[in-house]
Structure formats: C-alpha cells, structure tokens
Design goal:
single chain, alpha/beta, D-Maltodextrin-Binding Protein, domain 2, 8-stranded mixed beta sheet, 5-stranded mixed beta sheet, 15 helices, 41% helix, globular
Length: 348
C-alpha cells in the first residue's frame, strides 16, 4: 500500500506556533512525538519530508531498504553507510557536540546501542510507540538484555570457498581439521579488530580450545582483510581457496553473478546481529519512527532479508538457526576485554 502526502492543518498550526514563539526553539525529540495511530504517524512523517539513516548494512541492502520505504511513503531517505565501530564513534561525537546526526541507526554494535539507550541518546523501543503499530513482532526479535532493542537482521555465516579449488568433501568439520588441512595456507579471514562479532567469535574459540587454537589458526591464515567484501572477492578470484566467517547471502549473490563460489557451514559460527533504534534528538523524529516500523515489518524486512539464503528479518525470529544466540552484555564485555590477547595470539 502506498501513502500519498497529506497536509495536516493541526500540524501546520503547531509548527507555526513553535517557530513563532521563540527565536531559538528546542528541537522536538523522538521520545516526545508519539502519534496516536499509524495514520497520524505517516502524516507527521510526510510533513517532515525526509529521514537520515546511519547504517551498517551493505550498501546494496541499504539502498533496497531505503527505496522500498521511499516508494511506500514518499519520504526521501539520506543513507550513510558506516561499518564496524565507525557508526558508534560518529554518532557519539555528533550527539555530544549537538550536531545533526542519524535519525535512525542500524548497527551491529550491541553494547553501543545499550549504552546509548541507557544514556538517553537513543529512544527505548518500548517508548517509541512503534510496538503498538507493529502487528505480530515475535518476542524473540527483541534483545531483552540490550534494553529491548529489536533486531532488524540476523545473518548466518560460515565458509565461502572457490569451487574450482575446493570440493565439498574438503570443507573442514572442526577447527583442528582446518589447521591440519592443505587448505590452511590458502585460507583468508577478516581481522577480528574490525568487528565486535568477529572478536567475540575468536574469544569463543579460545575459550573452547585454549590459546593454542588461536595461535595455530593465526599461523595458517594466508591473508587478513579489513572487511568481508574484499575477502570474498579474493576467494572468487582464486587468491584464496577458503574464507572464514562470510555471510551466506554474500556467497549466494556472488554465485548468481557467475562467481565460482559456494557457501558451507562452519564447525561453529558467528551470527552478526543488526539492531535498529531511533535517536533521542532525531531531527525527523516521526519519519525515524516510521522508518523503524517499516524496517521491522514483513514488507520492509523482505526488501533485503531472505531466510533461504541465511538472512533473517525481525518477523523471521521464530526461524532463526538452531545455534543462534546473543551473549549477555557481561559476557560480551568480557570477550571484548580479551581483544589485545586475541590479536597477539593470531599474530596480528
């Protein structure tokens, strides 16, 4: 269903009153713009006319999500892709300076989302008004230990391999097998200091197998990459035979374009999670809440997510992989506290 732009006399009167009563009016905040109904929210969001999104999604996925939202509601989307820790750093800096920042955040850095929510920089999901307008959101889509932040996306990860260099029978079934495999010297990986989920993954390997597992693994990695995209490209080109911790949907998309790659499950996996939140000082608070609602809906989630290729939206929560879990904030903090030791053990 598409919504046409509509003018609200009442909203216009309020806007004129606010701008006319003070030379420097306080900007409305997302926490204090609770439209009573979806129709009210759409009208108020269309009045604002645009929304700024800071996103850790791939550039292609963010474009699809933004295009779907703009097509449905006629509201322009300014998207800025910020990977890794760049998003939290920028948002915190801009917020502290009182500068315009993202209205909506799609971030993989869960401890940042929790901290920012606790400090009031982000609006708690339960206070946003969105849950009442969103039908059928599974309770498991909300991270109760992380201030109830809803998950926009959960990704299945594992090995990506070059089908001209590796057969399915060659895929390691344990990390010890990988270290002893002829593929070991032809394996590439993304440096764990670029992603909290990867660092937590390495901490889990260390916890299960001791320091020796990481030391041996690090010695067998032919090359470390700054992100998953160049690693995947290296596997496709034959520079590497096997890549660690690639998302299943990446391999599927590359294969569809003719790349000689395939995806395989790893002995243990990391499941990157993308949480979505509205900024407390959003310049476009209604559009921000509407964008959040759209992203969590079946329609919005389907613009980028597909369970058949390991990409799960909020409404797919009951279909998450059997091994999916999210560490508690305390366990995540403890794992990240090992970062320096982990990098040293890996030889980085």
């Amino acid at each position: 269903m598409k919504y046409a732009r509509s003018a609200s006399i009442m909203l216009l009167a309020v806007a004129l009153a606010v701008t006319g009563c003070s030379a420097s009016p306080a900007a409305p905040t997302a926490a204090h713009t609770a439209a009573a109904t979806l129709e009210d929210l759409v009208a108020a969001a269309q009045k604002e006319g645009s929304v700024r999104v800071y996103s850790a999604l791939s550039e292609g996925d963010q474009k699809k999500l933004a295009a779907g939202f703009q097509e449905k509601y006629g509201i322009s989307v300014e998207s800025l892709r910020l990977g890794g820790t760049t998003l939290p750093t920028r948002f915190e800096s801009e917020t502290a300076a009182g500068s315009p920042s993202g209205d909506v955040l799609l971030s993989t850095t869960l401890d940042f989302l929790l901290k920012a929510t606790d400090e009031g920089a982000l609006v708690p999901f339960t206070d946003s008004g969105v849950p009442a307008m969103l039908n059928g959101l599974p309770p498991t889509a909300e991270l109760n230990q992380y201030a109830g932040i809803p998950m926009f996306q959960v990704l299945s990860t594992g090995f990506i391999y070059n089908t001209g260099m590796v057969s399915p029978a060659d895929i390691p079934t344990s990390w010890q097998d990988l270290v002893a495999s002829p593929l070991a010297g032809k394996t590439c990986a993304v440096s764990p200091d670029t992603s909290e989920s990867l660092m937590v993954f390495m901490a889990s390997l260390r916890n299960a197998g001791g320091d020796g597992v990481l030391s041996k693994l690090g010695s067998k990695i032919a090359r470390w990459y700054p992100s998953v995209i160049p690693m995947n490209e290296a596997v496709a080109s034959g520079e590497c035979a096997l890549g660690l911790n690639s998302a299943e949907f990446f391999a599927h998309a590359m294969k569809a374009k003719g790349a000689a790659v395939e995806f395989a499950a790893a002995p243990t996996a990391v499941y990157p999670v993308v949480g979505v939140a509205v900024a407390g000082a959003a310049q476009h608070p209604n559009a921000a809440r509407l964008f959040m609602l759209y992203s969590l809906s079946s329609e919005g989630g389907a613009t980028v997510n597909d369970v058949s290729i390991g990409s799960y939206g909020a409404m797919d929560a009951e279909k998450y992989p059997a091994g999916f879990s999210v560490l508690s904030p305390a366990d995540q903090k403890a794992a990240l506290g090992e970062s320096a030791d982990i990098m040293k053990l890996l030889g980085l």
